[in-house]
């Protein structure tokens, strides 16, 4: 019994002396003072594991990510003999000094605590401490949506010391760009991670200069979804509006129905594309430009029919008065006696003919040859100029409007598409 008790007591004493840190913690260790207090700054090396990026919100301009943050530093007060390392209970962190690292531009953050707090403390014999945390954070990301949905966004994850300036702590990446893991394996619904790199910087505040680490990554949006959802339907609506060019001008219900239906459908498509980004309507996005172009072509096709139909109706109305007075004039000339015409005054006859020609003729009249007052001459000149201006815009053959529209509308639409896609994809 004595031997066994002695053996147990010797094991207990050897285990107690081999446990690192406890003697230092009980012999003057002060967790409120950083290592090397009053001397050189503590060098803290960091590394990151990006577990997931769950959502990227254009309306709120932020992203939500789950990361594992690992920090390493050396505390000479926790040096012990041996070449081993010990993983301690996470609750022991309450007894140690830890850096006051925080995430810059974070809106909401929390530590995972299922089934226990997701923290890790590992102590090495040279006094190096590994402190790991699992965090989910929502970080602001300033986005430029002028090229949406063909845009590339640059977001950042910045780590900075809250209270200790560069005279107390310094931040470094553990292995440069290799300090970040998992980001190249991310699969996002709308984006593809193009590239990423790490930076070391400083934040100049009123209270001092603070160390800062930056992870910068570029996200390129996948445009195929928007092509199938928005670009293809809007293009087909424009092509549908061109069908009216092959329908005769007399088919008023058919052409009006096509024009109004395509305009309303395009309006619905524009409202639907903007509803998903209701809080970013202040931006003129690339998709808004394309939808505006398509709406202009559809509305132009409707206006084209209105112009062609109006010109056709005006031409038909102009033919009826020309045939009516001519037939009536022949009948009257048969009934009028020639002797009555000869008895009329030649001067009054000339004056009547001249004024009649001024009122009903659209040809130019030499107003200087007429014996009229000055204000009548001015009216005559203005009337001739108005007839000349109207003649410039008068469509002689309304059928040619549809003929030229069949060629010009598709050609101009293709040309606009070439400039649109070249600008937003390569500039």
UniProtKB/TrEMBL annotation:
**Span of domain Neurotransmitter-gated ion-channel transmembrane:** 230-339
**Is Nuclease there in the keyword field?**
no
Major location category of this protein: membrane
Please report the name of this protein according to its UniProt entry: Gamma-aminobutyric acid receptor subunit pi
Q: Which GO terms describe its cellular component?
A: apical plasma membrane; chloride channel complex; synaptic membrane
Family statement drawn from the similarity comment of this UniProt entry: Belongs to the ligand-gated ion channel (TC 1.A.9) family. Gamma-aminobutyric acid receptor (TC 1.A.9.5) subfamily. GABRP sub-subfamily.
Q: Which organism is it from?
A: Onychorhynchus coronatus
User: Where do the coiled-coil regions begin and end?
Assistant: none
Q: Subunit info?
A: Heteropentamer, formed by a combination of alpha (GABRA1-6), beta (GABRB1-3), gamma (GABRG1-3), delta (GABRD), epsilon (GABRE), rho (GABRR1-3), pi (GABRP) and theta (GABRQ) chains, each subunit exhibiting distinct physiological and pharmacological properties.
Q: Which gene encodes it?
A: Gabrp_2
